[in-house]
């Protein structure tokens, strides 16, 4: 039977944690968020990152393993880019050896396979199995034996299967041994690293498990063989993503080439209508998987994907691959060979069938007995009911007779007619209903009786078939038995007395029948008119029913609408609640913000107060400082003024003094110069005079001679000297006075200098004071500057605070505005929704009220109609009952007629039978020869039957020989298969 390859998707957990994934998985589809829109890929099942290994195993692998244990080939392979979780899915993570929860498909499949095989061994006595395993790796388009790396493996295509020549095949008895083999092989597997995965498997790993089972039943040997391929493919990513170079690039190229061939094969296989050539032989991978792709295998493909956006291209190409795989049809057949002694096995099967027949027969007998009892019970009940009906009929008849008598004797036709009518109506009222119910009951019981009869007939026929089959099988030469109907007929032979009674009854009934017939004719015409009325009423009833149904459907529609609306209302209420929640949250945050704002306001207030206090303090200080400064300034200014005044006066006096000193010094210097000149002139004169004196003395000496003259000269000279001396003395005193004047002047100058000095010191002091005042002024200026800067900073701070405050206020305002807008929006949507709902509700209510009105109107109409109809119906029912009673009459009359005819037939039959029997008895009594011939006839029949049995045996022998002949090539082919192994 062909079936599509099952494709499953598995999305591993994200490597980026919380980053949004472009893959959104549902149970059976993956919605991919592409740049140019969304695309949906539908697969058999999608496992998201939370799916467990057990989930994957149960869904993907379990059935395939079960089928492989039953003789079907199976393949499971994992496809996807590197690091997408193929090995995780197939084998499990490296720590899965210790954590059984993480075990992948391979260990789980192996365990389950052995569980199944062991269970079969326990269930069937003669069931044996053998499991062989091969484990190979395709790496760089070379096949490596993972169970012995030294082996050289070659592919051999045997048509039906692909053999791996040279690969080690290990026989295993249990799952543990097989897992050891897998573990051993896996460690030999080539692994390398790429940019995408540190433990990337660069090769395709194929675990090939070959299962053979043998089951012996009777002489029949059932041999089944199957191969289970579990494949972990290498990463399917683009080379550019791997950043591979050198050997890695070669690997990637080879991996890609084999996967490209795989993709090509799958694409061709997915379009069988195109009928292209499938290039299985283009790569070892597709050559080995030939049977799994479009061949004799039950195949499942699991595609692994990364959920992260960076791998989106790989994920989409993987999903495209999966979708192509899902279009491939495989035709898996059970690999089974049957051998052994077929004759014996048939005999055994016949024996088993006989046993079964016996068992069923016993069962049927039991059931038949039960049903027979039921039927008898039913028959008893029916006869009882029949008796009751008969009694009612007699009662009615007597009443009818009475009415007829009254009618005949009263002569008043009209009155009698009325009475007659009344009688009929009373009859209808009292008895007709009872009759009607009886009729219904009778109909039901007849139906049941009929069903039982049918069942009885079926059982009988089955029983007879079984019986005849059993007789045929067990006593082929047995006597021919009389048929059941013959036997039954002999059982119901009536006595002559009952026959006479029946004849009397028959006559009576015929008379009544005639009377009833006339009445029936009358009633017939009435019945027809009523029938037409009834039909009309039924039509109107049907219409009314239709309308009711229509209304009912309208009502249900309205109810559905109402439910929808209530659902919508609920959802809106939910939304509202959410909104209210949001609003309350926002309100909370708003409140928090308002509290913050309050706090900020308070802080601002406090700051303001502080500021005011600081300002006050500062103002006071400033005032003090300015006052102090003012006073100091004023003082300093006055001092400066004084100083400058004194300074100017001092400088003037100093100037004057200086001028005076200078003048004096000039005078003194000039006087001193004059005096010095005079002194030098006097000293010159003195020197001249001393010269002259010396000359005079020399002259006096020389002129002693001229003593007189000289004396006179001397006297003159002495006189002159004394005058000169006088003059010198005068000059000296004058000089002395002048020196004293100079000294006094010097003293004056020194005094004045001292004064000046004092004044200068004072001035210095003043200057110092002034400088101090200046420094003070400077300090004050600095303080003022600092104050200015502080003021500036304060102003800046104030500005900042103000701007911040403004920003805060603006933020708060915007936030408030936003929240208000949101709130307004919510309120508006709420209002809108509530309005809509109100409108819808009003509409619905309107509709409801309208429909209710319509409904009520219709109901009223209906009720009226019903009332009318019910009165009509009552009348009709009455008439119907009347007609039914007439029908009843009719049917009972017909029944009775039938009974009579049946009795007549029976009578005829019995008389005939009687004649025949008597004739036969006479014959049998008279001719003994007849019996002998009868025995002879039976003997001949027996001989005939024996002959046919012998012929059948011969035929069976021929057939079994033919079968053996037919089996021979199968055995030969099996031997041929066994030989290369
Ligand atoms: N479903 C998952 N749940 C948890 N971890 C997973 C899952 N799938 C994959 N991983 C982790 O992702 C990593 C890479 O997975 P794995 O080795 O199975 O990828 P791969 O497709 O076989 O890569 P390569 O093709 O290179 O062999 C491993 O650490 C594995 O444990």
UniProtKB/TrEMBL annotation:
Keyword Acyltransferase in record: no
Highest taxon listed in the record's lineage: Eukaryota
PROSITE patterns per record: KINESIN_MOTOR_1 (PS00411), KINESIN_MOTOR_2 (PS50067)
Gene Ontology CC: microtubule
Keyword Transmembrane: no
Region (Disordered): 472-491, 959-981
Recorded GO MF terms: ATP binding; microtubule binding; microtubule motor activity
Principal subcellular localisation of the protein: cytoplasm
Alphabetical list of InterPro entries matching this protein: Kinesin-like_fam, Kinesin_motor_CS, Kinesin_motor_dom, Kinesin_motor_dom_sf, P-loop_NTPase
Domain Kinesin motor: 4-328
GO biological process, one term: cytoskeleton organization
Localization, UniProt: Cytoplasm, Cytoskeleton
Keywords, in A-Z order: ATP-binding, Coiled coil, Cytoplasm, Cytoskeleton, Microtubule, Motor protein, Nucleotide-binding
Pfam families with a match to the protein in the record: Kinesin (PF00225)
Coiled coil: 343-395, 499-699, 753-800, 827-913
Residues annotated for ATP binding in this entry: 80-87
Gene3D superfamilies linked to this entry: Kinesin motor domain (3.40.850.10)
PANTHER family (UniProt xref): CENTROMERE PROTEIN E (PTHR47968), CENTROMERE-ASSOCIATED PROTEIN E (PTHR47968:SF75)
Family: Belongs to the TRAFAC class myosin-kinesin ATPase superfamily. Kinesin family. KIN-5/BimC subfamily.
Name of the protein: Kinesin-like protein
Gene name of the encoded protein: Cni-klp-18
